Structures are given as structure tokens and as C-alpha cells.
Automatic annotation (TrEMBL):
Taxonomy, superkingdom: Eukaryota
Single GO term (MF): ATP binding
GO terms, biological process: double-strand break repair via homologous recombination
Domain RecA family profile per the UniProt entry, residue ranges: 17-226
Any one GO cellular component localisation term in the record: Rad51B-Rad51C-Rad51D-XRCC2 complex
Cross-referenced SUPFAM superfamilies: P-loop containing nucleoside triphosphate hydrolases
InterPro entries, alphabetized: P-loop_NTPase, RecA_ATP-bd, XRCC2
Name of the protein in its database record: DNA-repair protein
């Protein structure tokens, strides 16, 4: 009886299966690959418009919905479903599908060349359709639709329990900031009713995402548009060249909810005139002492040399 406490609860194989399910491998595109990100992390991708923020989300979506292997072909994906909530209608579905088709075609071509199977044909459209079934897209035109979409995700994930969803993407979390802020100053007809404004909206947003993560652990990626002035304040604060504090326009409850923040912007030098455009990325939370440069090509984000 004294040795009961050292009896195993599970085998090593069972432990690995449990850990990999609780902490799935997420294939992060550049420039997100610098920091180890996992479920329950809230990542804010900030930058002026345009700065490839939506492209980063699209690249992450392609990495997720592609299978790792299929019929011996290495596609390099994770075969997970993705939830994409579009708040400013910037996602180009044609661009996303084109990038996905390019990845599938290049993987098949590489497999044929390396295995001397040039005469073999693959069902690329069948695989493309299978991948797109893992991509769930919701477009919202105001904060009420956004909150309704978040609340509806609980039932959506419960009804489709066979799908493994590990990534939630929100494109332009501050899209309705000024509209919601204007509501805050309007008088309420019923004094007992909670004021509908910027603060209450984001209190509900954070609350709903927290509830969602309790039952469905996911990585949350949210883009945020900043102005050129804000961009300069960001860079100055991180580099230490200025004592001016950065004035965040998002409510404090959202700021404290974010666990990671990265700033992306197009390079200001002469290389921006080249095709493709070169972008610059720096981590603000956690603050890292190095930065990345990348370009956007037909198949997605590539390293800049």
C-alpha cells in the first residue's frame, strides 16, 4: 500500500496525446514565429493601413487549414479549423484561395519532382475544397453584430464538436471604436439600463472571449489599425528615443487582456518603391531587441533579404 502513490496514472504515449491536444502545434507565419505562442494567448497585431496585417492572418489561416500530409505529399499544414471574424471587410477571399491553391500546387510539384512521378495527377481541387471547409468566415458591420457573433460561437463549436478549432482571428478589433465612443455620450432613456458605449462593448467582448477559451482553448489573433502618429509613438517608446508616452485608444480592459503585441509597418526607405513591398515588424509585448523584415508574395509571406 505504501507504493500506491508511485503507480502510474497514464502511459507516456497517453501523456503526449493529452498534452498535444491541450497544447497543439501551431504553425506560425512570419513575423509571429519569433515568440512561442499557444492557446489562451491574445495577440494584437498593430500597424498603419496598409501594413500586411490581414495578410498575416490569411497566412496563418492557410497554415492551419492545410493538412500536414496527404497521400504521401507533405503540405506542411496543421489540419485545424479557423474562425475568422472580419470587422472592416478587408479580407480578400480570392487572395486567400489563390494562396492556398499555390501552396497545394507547389507541394504536389515538389513531390512529383523529388519522387520522379511526373505522370501522377493529384486531386488539387478536392483538397482545396476540403481545406476551405475548415475556414469559417463571419463579417460584422457594427459592434452589435460582433457581440452576437462571439456569443454564437459557443453553440457553433458545440454543434460541430468534430472540428478542432485552435485559432480565432479578429480583423481590426477597433473598427467600430469611434461609433461606440459616440454612443457613450448619448443620454439613456432608461436610467436603470446599462449604457451602450465603448467601455461596455469591450467589457462584453473580453467576457465572451474568456468564456469561449474556457471550453475551447484557442490562440486569438486580433489586428488593430493605428495612425502614422501612433506608429511613431510606438517606435519611439520602444527604442527609447522619446519620452512621450504612447496614447492607446483602446479601452483599458482590452489593453490588459492582450498578452502579446507586435507592430508591423511598411519600410520607410526607398525599398518601398519596389515590388513586392517590404514590411518591418517589431515585438512590443514582450519587447525584443531585434526586428524582422518580410515581403508578401503569391504564396504568402516571405523573408526579406
Amino acid at each position: 500500500m505504501a507504493k500506491e502513490w508511485i503507480k502510474r496514472d497514464e502511459s507516456a504515449k497517453q501523456m503526449l496525446q493529452r498534452v498535444l491536444k491541450e497544447r497543439p502545434l501551431l504553425l506560425l507565419p512570419q513575423p509571429l514565429h519569433r515568440v512561442p505562442l499557444g492557446t489562451h494567448n491574445i495577440v494584437e497585431i498593430a500597424g498603419p493601413s496598409p501594413s500586411a496585417k490581414t495578410e498575416i492572418l490569411a497566412q496563418m489561416a492557410v497554415n492551419s487549414i492545410l493538412p500536414k500530409t496527404r497521400n504521401g505529399v507533405q503540405y506542411g499544414g496543421s489540419e485545424h479549423s479557423v474562425l475568422f471574424i472580419d470587422l472592416d471587410c478587408r479580407l480578400d477571399i480570392f487572395r486567400l484561395s489563390h494562396s492556398l491553391k499555390q501552396r497545394i500546387s507547389e507541394a504536389n510539384k515538389w513531390h512529383k519532382t523529388t519522387n520522379n512521378q511526373m505522370g501522377v495527377e493529384y486531386d488539387e481541387m478536392g483538397l482545396f475544397g476540403e481545406c476551405m471547409k475548415r475556414f469559417s468566415y463571419t463579417r460584422c458591420y457594427d459592434s452589435f453584430e460582433f457581440l452576437a457573433a462571439l456569443k454564437g460561437l459557443h453553440n457553433k463549436l458545440a454543434d460541430d464538436s468534430k472540428k478542432t478549432v485552435y485559432v480565432l482571428m479578429i480583423d481590426n478589433i477597433g473598427a467600430f471604436h469611434w461609433i461606440d465612443r459616440s454612443f457613450s455620450s448619448l443620454p439613456q432613456g432608461n436610467p436603470n439600463r446599462k449604457n451602450v458605449g465603448l467601455q461596455s462593448v469591450f467589457e462584453t467582448v473580453v467576457k465572451e472571449i474568456k468564456k469561449l477559451l474556457l471550453l475551447h482553448p484557442m490562440l486569438v489573433l486580433a489586428t488593430k489599425t493605428v495612425t502614422s502618429q501612433v506608429k511613431s509613438s510606438y517606435s519611439a517608446r520602444v527604442s527609447g528615443f522619446s519620452n512621450n508616452a504612447y496614447r492607446e485608444y483602446m479601452p483599458l480592459i482590452w489593453q490588459s487582456f492582450v498578452t502579446h503585441r507586435i507592430l508591423v509597418r511598411p519600410l520607410d526607405d526607398k525599398r518601398k518603391l519596389q515590388d513586392p513591398v517590404c514590411y518591418f515588424a517589431e515585438w512590443l509585448l514582450p519587447a525584443l531587441n531585434f526586428s524582422d523584415e518580410f515581403v508578401v508574395g503569391d504564396t504568402g509571406i516571405l523573408t526579406s533579404f
